[in-house]
Amino acid sequence: MGNNQNNGAADLVRARAQLLEGGHPRNPRLDAESLRSALVDLFELWLTGKGAELGIGPDSGLALVAVGGLGRREMLPYSDLDLVLLHDDVDPARVAEVADQLWYPLWDAHIKLDHSVRTVPQALRVAADDIPAALGMLEARHIVGDADLSNLLIGGVRREWRTGIRTRFDDLIAQTRTRWQRSGEIAHRAEPDLKNGRGGLRDIQLLDALAIAQLTDAMPGLGPDVPGGGLKHAHRRMLDVRTELHRVAGRARDQLRAQDADEIGAALRIGDRFDLARTLSDSARTVSYSVDVGLRTAANALPRRGLARLRRMPVRRPIDEGVVEHAGEVVLARDARPQRDPGLILRVAASSAVTGLPMSATTLNRLSEDAPELREPWPKDALNDLLVLLGAGRNAIGVIEALDRTGLWGRLLPEWGAVRDLPPRDAIHTWTVDRHLMETVAYAGAGSTRVARPDLLALGALLHDIGKGRAGDHSIVGAELATHIGRRLGLWPSDVRTLSAIVRHHLLLPDTATRRDLADPATVEHVVTALDGDVQLLELLHTLAEADSLATGPGVWGDWKASLIGDLVRRCRTVMRGDELPAPEPIAPELLAKAAAGGVHVELQPGDGKHTYTVTVIAPDAPGLLSDAAGVLALHSLRVLSAALGVEGASAVDTFVVTPRFGGPPDAGLLRQELIRAMAGDLDPGAVLAKRERDADGPGPGPYAQAQPRVLWSEASEGGVILELRAEDRLGLLTRLAAVFADAAASVRWAKVVTMGSAVVDTFCLDLGAGDSAERRAALERSVLEVVPQPAPKKPEEAGDSAVG
C-alpha cells in the first residue's frame, strides 16, 4: 500500500512540474492566474481521490479542510499545503491510521506540508488562543469528507472571531505593525517581501479578516476607476508577481530579488525591472491606503460595551466651509454640495493637513463621484488651499497620497500620472519620483521663512521633477509643464516665469558648487547669467537645493554640500547686487610662511559641522603628493567629503574637508609623519589600502558597484580639461585616482571631490600639456575606470539573454 501512496504523490509532483514547465504546443505555458487555478484543481483532485481511497466520506466522522493558499484558492507553485484533518467520535487508532496514510505520501514526495489533526472544539480553542492560527482558519475551506463537520469549524471560527474581535483588536494591530517594521514597505524596498511587507498579501488577508468581523468592507475606500484599477487589481497583480517569483526561483520565496525582476517583468508582460517596480509600488500603495482606511473604519466600528455604550456619539466640529471633523476624521458637512463646489476637494485636503486628521474614505469617494473640475485659471481660494496643503510639512504627504490613491490628485494635477510610482534610476534616491516630490515639499516647508516667496518655493518643490518619465531633459521638459500648470493655477505671469525657472534650474546650484571652481569668476558669471541676475530666484533655488537633497536619501545633504552651495550663493548675490567679485580667499599668512619655508606641514582643525574637520597639507609640490596625502587620510579612516588644491611657489597647499568613519580624528603630528614616510617611499598607502580591502572583502576582484561608472569630459574656462567621475565610493578612492593622474603625467590644477552616500561625483581640472589628444584622454579614462568599483559581471546565461535581446 505504501508504494501506491508514494506513486500517487509522485504523480501529483509530476503533474505540477508539467504545469510549471509549459511552453510546448501540447502543453502551453499558463499565465500566473491560470496556473494558480490549475494548481488548486490539481491538489483538490488528488486530495479528494486520496480521501475517498482512505474512506473519508460524508458519514465517516472525518473531514479534510484546507487553509492557507489552497483554502483561499490562491495556490502558488511551491506554497505549503496547509491541511486540517477533523474527526468526531472516531476511534483514535483509525484517525491515526488515516492521518499517516494521508501525510506520508506527501512527505515522501517532498511536498511542504503544514498539518494538524483535531476535533472541532480543539481547533476552536487553538483559534481562540492564537491570532495567526485564527487568521488562517478564517480562510478554511472544505475539501472532502463530512461537510457538516467542516462547516462546524468554519462557522464556529468566524462566529467567535466576530464576537471576540473587541478584545483581540489591539493585539491584532500590534502584530501587524511589528510585521511592517520587520519587513518594511513594499513600495520603497529594492527587494520587497511580497507576502509580509507593508502593502503586501498579508495586509489583504487582514482586510478580509476585518470584513469577516463585520467591521469594514473587504475593499474599503477604493473603486475600480481609481489609478491602477483599485484593490482587486492590486491583489491580483501582487499574486501574479509572487506566482512568477516561485516559478523563477523553483521554490517557495516571498522576497523579490533584484536579479529576478527582469525575468518576472517579462513573464508578466509588464516590462523590465523598472516597470515591475512601478507596478509593485502602485499595487502596494493601493493596498496600504486600503489597510489604513480599513483599520480606521474597524476601530470606529468596534462594538462598545459597559459604560462606553452610554457615551454620546461623537459631535461634528466645523473646520472650514463645508468641512467638519467627525469621529477623528475629516468629513463633509451635512449641507455640503460637492456638485456645486469645485474647490471643496482642496478645502477638505487643506483641513486634513492642518489638523493632522485623516480624510474619511466615504468623503473622498463622494468627492470623486460628485465634485466638478476646477475652472481654469483656478479661483484664488483654490490656489490658497493648495498652498495651505503644501505648507503643512509632513502632514501633506499622507493627504496627497490619499488624494492620489482615490483619483482626486490626478484630477487636480493631470501631469502627475507620468511620475506616479515612477522608480528612480539612480540608487542614491530612496523614493519613487512622486513620493520624492512630496518629501521635497515637506522639507521645503521647514525653510519657507528663508525666502520672500514661500508660495513659489512650495510649488517649485512640488514640480521640480515633474518632467521625469518623459522624453528629453527633465529640467527642460518640466519647465514647460510648470508654465502650463502655473497658468492653470492662476499665477501672475511674472510668477509663472519664476516657477518655470525654478524647475528649469533646480540642479544649477548643486551641480555648479560640487563640480566647478568657485574661485573662478567665470563660474559665478555662469550662474548669474543663467538666472538673469534674479536674486529672489537665487534664494529660492538655494532653499530648494537643500530640500531636494534631503528628500533624495541619506548622506546626500551635509555640512560640506551646504558650505559649497552657500559659498556659491554668496558670491552670486554679490555680483547680482553690483559689487565687485572678491578675489579667491587668500592663504593665511602663517601658511604662506610655512609654504615659503618649505618642508612638510599638516594642520587639523574642527570644521563647520559637528563631525567634520579641515586638514591642510603643505608640502613640496610634486607628482604623487595628492595620492600620498589622500592615502594617509584614508589609512586613518578619514572620509574625504571635499578637497581643494592650491599652489604657492614651489609648495602645494591642499585642503581636505573630512569626517571620521568612526571615533575622533588622529593627531596632526601622526598624519605628518606618515605623509613624510609616504613621500620618501617608505610607506605605500595604496598597497596598504588594497590589503585592507582584500581582508575585508575576501579573495576576489574587490567591491562591486550597483551602477556603471561614468567619466565625462569638458573644457575648463581657464584652460586645461575637466574630468568628472560618477561612480560608487570605495576605500581610498581619491588616492587611487590621484595615482592614476600622476602615472599619466596629468597635473591636477584644482579638484572638487564630493561624496554623496555611497556615490561620488569627483571633478578634476587637469593640465595634460602639449600631448593632449583624444587618444590620451581615452587612455586616461580607461585607467580611471580600472580603479573604481564596477558592476558584477553577468552570469553566462544572463550574458546570453542580453545578446539575444
Structure description:
The chain is of the alpha+beta class and 805 residues long. The protein has 5 domains: 2-167, Beta Polymerase, domain 2 (2-Layer Sandwich), CATH 3.30.460; 189-207 and 215-304, no CATH class; 316-411; 413-586, Orthogonal Bundle (Hypothetical protein af1432), CATH 1.10.3210; 594-791, no CATH class. Helix content is 53%, strand content 13%. The protein is built from 31 helices and 17 strands. The chain has a 4-stranded mixed sheet with strand order 3-2-1-4, with helices on both faces. The chain has a 4-stranded antiparallel sheet with strand order 8-9-11-10, sandwiched between helices. Strand 6 and strand 7 (329-332) form a beta hairpin. Helix 9 packs across helix 11 and helix 23 (535-552) runs antiparallel to helix 24 (559-576). The radius of gyration is 33 Å and the shape is globular.
- Coarse shape: globular
| Secondary structure tally: strands | 17
The tally of helices reads 31
Q: How far apart are the first and last residues' alpha carbons, in Å?
A: 52 Å
- Largest β sheet strand count, sense and barrel closure: 4 strands, mixed
Strand content bin: 5-15%
- Specify Rg, calculated over alpha carbons: 33 Å
Domain count, please report it: 5
Structural class: alpha+beta
Weakly predicted, low-confidence segments: 1-6, 580-585, 698-702, 796-805
What strand order characterises the main sheet? 3-2-1-4
What is the percent of helical residues? Answer: 40-55%
Question: What's the pLDDT, averaged over the residues?
Answer: 86
Protein name: Bifunctional uridylyltransferase/uridylyl-removing enzyme
Domain ACT: 614-690, 722-801
Organism: Nocardia jiangsuensis
GO molecular function, one term: [protein-PII] uridylyltransferase activity
